[in-house]
Write a structure and sequence with these properties.
CATH architecture of the largest domain: 3-Layer(aba) Sandwich
Structural class: alpha+beta
Number of strands: 31
Shape: globular
CATH superfamily of the largest domain: P-loop containing nucleotide triphosphate hydrolases
Number of domains: 6
Organism: Ciona savignyi (Pacific transparent sea squirt)
Distance between the termini: 59 Å
CATH topology of the largest domain: Rossmann fold
Catalytic activity: GTP + H2O = GDP + phosphate + H(+)
Membrane topology: Peripheral membrane protein
Strand order of the largest sheet: 11-10-16-7-8-15-12-13
EC number: 3.6.5.n1
Helix content: 25-40%
Keywords: GTP-binding, Hydrolase, Membrane, Mitochondrion, Mitochondrion inner membrane, Nucleotide-binding, Protein biosynthesis
CATH class of the largest domain: Alpha Beta
């Protein structure tokens, strides 16, 4: 009846058609038949992740696993089924880890397999680390045409850190450029994986997919939990919240791994974080929906020990859905699991709404998107020109770019994002007037944080250890690039006859702009790059200010090393000369360090023909007019306001 009512009205008819098409699309990618979870004891469950370097075929393998087990229908249109974000489909990369549960029959017995497709780029490594906490093993995927890459090694070491067994798989064996023997040798040299343990597949055509499923069942261990607690409703619930997403009408959808006990619809739950926060767990939630990802959400009304699924319980804020939190039945507290290692942002940028009237909307959008991406940090900021905004911390440039794109696509937020910077540190001397103790450490994130040089004992800059894997013929050019960016060699080794692995210590500030692009350019796109933090080192740091006719413009101030300061000052002055509109008077553009001018450009005044009204007369009359104009120019320069358009500030902030 309601459907017929909707169809009678044009506007409602459109809404109904949109709902019907979305519902049909969801049903095409999901199994409508509910799963009887009572038949899966912990021994019949396998939780595993798929890890690899970017573009090695993780999402394609996930598609074939879903098809082979009947979770989705076999179709040529099944591409990146688990990549649900618009930005993922546009860029062809996985940004957000996604889960799916499938049933696989092995030797006449059914097994419940929970797979997690993880990102491959280094900027999203925190997604991988969180996801592995809900797994008991991983599939390590290596491209037969590219071999072992930097992020392959990083993800392999990450799985070792979690103590997870690894199933090595070589993908794309159908490619004409595949060199399986070379890749096997690289995996032996770098990962210590013998060729006899490696499975050869083609995820694109589904070749040997069944061998991967058999290896998952036979080689990976089941989740460790008390089997008696699986179906005993009185057993203490212990569930790990390892990921979350946000939907407009349902609020927070939490992905959980049930370690012990049973979680049912209508249960009242709380968390260790909330109980520690308010003392006696005053905050609690009623479970409104619980189920599995198939890969779409399928309500099952119950999850047992060892299973991975989702819950909807009315959480609405970032503080409520703490990643790594332990959930339990209300008034039946348990000992919390060890906290997740928090992500440390390495790139910072200031974000402002394009219109200040949109500030509240931007804040709400940021809070909701941060539920999906918990590696992002946010603090308040303010600009004299752009007004209040936020200082956002990211794990890399791609991470920042994708985050801003998601803000625009998912929430319609138009923002102004400044040029990325890295956090420096300053060790201050003791000062009684400012109540500073000796060796006081402060973080310098913006030029406004820069302290008086007289108070500073030393400055420190963040250092990373970069791992570059590339064909050997490009090694000399890569070494020259690293040396030009103040890098120092750590190691240099061959992982095969034609592939070299270079490790360099580099200042983080040297790689956050165009280092990756330059590396790809000089290696014809073959080199891969991964990095990890390596502490801090002493550096000569300074602040370059910009003066317009002697007046300081704080928005143009920048922090850099002393060696780069003069070059930065010259470039900044030259850009401003080209971008500032001509004024009725001459404008001097200066770059300064303290009271020392290190660069200068003069912007000439708008030309005015002062002799136009002088039709004749002697030379003294012309000189009188020119002298009067010169005095007028001097007066205007002293009292005049330089008109700098807002878009110029925005453009300079982004560069």
């Amino acid at each position: 009846v309601f459907s017929r009512f909707l169809r009678r009205r044009p506007v409602c008819r459109i809404l109904f058609q949109q709902f019907h098409s979305q519902h049909k699309e969801a049903s095409d990618h999901s199994d409508a038949q509910p799963i009887d979870l009572t038949r899966f004891s912990p021994e019949k469950i396998r939780n595993f992740g798929i890890i690899a370097h970017v573009d090695h075929g993780k999402s394609t393998l996930a598609d074939r696993l879903l098809e082979f087990t009947g979770a989705i229908k076999e179709s040529s249109e099944n591409k990146q089924v688990l990549d649900k974000l618009q930005v993922e489909r546009e860029r062809g990369i996985t940004v957000k880890a996604q889960s799916a549960s499938v049933v696989y029959k092995h030797k006449n017995e059914d097994y419940l397999l929970n797979l997690i497709d993880t990102p491959g780029h280094v900027d999203f490594s925190y997604e991988v680390s969180r996801s592995l906490s809900a797994c008991q093993g991983v599939i390590l995927l290596v491209d037969a045409t590219q071999g072992v890459q930097a992020q392959t090694l990083a993800n392999f070491l990450l799985s070792m850190e979690h103590g997870l067994p690894v199933i090595p798989v070589i993908n794309k064996i159908d490619s004409p450029r595949a060199n399986v023997e070379k890749v096997e040798q690289e995996m032996l040299n770098v990962l210590d994986v013998p060729a006899s343990e490696i499975i050869h597949i083609s995820a694109k055509f589904g070749q040997n997919i069944e061998k991967v499923l058999e290896a998952i069942v036979e080689l990976l261990p089941p989740p460790v939990c008390d089997e008696k607690s699986s179906y005993d409703s009185s057993a203490l619930l212990k569930a790990l919240l390892f990921d979350s997403t946000y939907e407009k009408f349902r609020g927070v959808i939490a992905n959980v791994a049930i370690l012990d006990g049973t979680l049912r619809k209508n249960d009242i739950i709380s968390s260790v974080y909330l109980s520690q926060k308010d003392g006696n767990s005053k905050s609690f939630y009623e479970v409104k929906e619980v189920g599995l990802m198939r890969p779409e959400h399928v309500a099952t009304n119950v999850l047992y020990a060892g299973q991975v699924g989702y819950i909807v319980c009315g959480m609405k804020t970032v503080a409520d859905a703490q990643i790594g939190d332990t959930l339990f039945h209300h008034k039946q507290p348990v000992i919390g699991l060890p906290e997740f290692k928090k992500a440390k942002p390495v790139v910072f940028g200031e974000m402002f709404p394009s219109e200040q009237t949109q500030y509240k909307n931007l804040e709400a959008a940021l809070n909701r998107l941060m539920l999906n991406d918990r590696s992002v940090t946010k603090t308040s900021s303010k600009s004299f020109l752009l007004g209040p905004g936020f200082r956002i911390g990211f794990l890399g440039l791609l991470h920042m770019d994708v985050f801003c794109q998601r803000l625009q696509q998912e929430f319609g937020a138009n923002v102004v994002m400044t040029r990325p910077t890295v956090p420096y540190k300053a060790i201050l001397k003791a000062n009684k007037r400012l109540q500073l103790k000796d060796e006081t450490e402060i973080v310098i994130s913006t030029p406004d944080d820069y302290p008086d040089n007289g108070l500073v004992k030393e400055f420190l800059q963040p250092i990373i250890t970069g791992t570059i894997i590339s064909p050997a013929r490009y090694s000399q050019s890569i070494i020259e690039l690293c040396v030009s960016r103040n890098g120092s060699a750590v190691s240099n080794s061959y992982i095969s006859d034609a592939t070299v692995m270079l490790q360099y210590k580099l200042p983080l500030d040297e790689i956050v702009t165009d280092f990756y692009d330059r590396l790809k350019s000089i290696s014809s796109g073959y080199a891969s790059f991964d990095y990890e933090e390596a502490g801090f080192e002493t550096v000569n740091l300074t602040k370059v200010d910009v003066l317009l006719n002697g007046e300081l413009v704080r928005e143009f101030s920048k922090i850099c090393t002393l060696e780069k300061s003069r070059k930065l000052g010259v470039i900044t002055c030259s850009k401003l000369k080209e971008m500032i509109p001509r004024q009725p008077f001459q404008v001097s553009i200066q770059a300064a360090i303290g009271k020392s001018i290190i660069a200068r450009q003069n912007l000439p005044a708008v030309k005015k023909d002062v002799l136009a009204k002088c039709g004749g007369g002697d030379f003294s009359r012309k000189m009188k007019l020119l002298q009067r104009e010169a005095e007028n120019q001097k007066h205007l320069r002293a009292i005049g306001n330089i008109k700098v358009p807002k878009d110029l500030f925005v453009k300079m902030l982004r560069e």
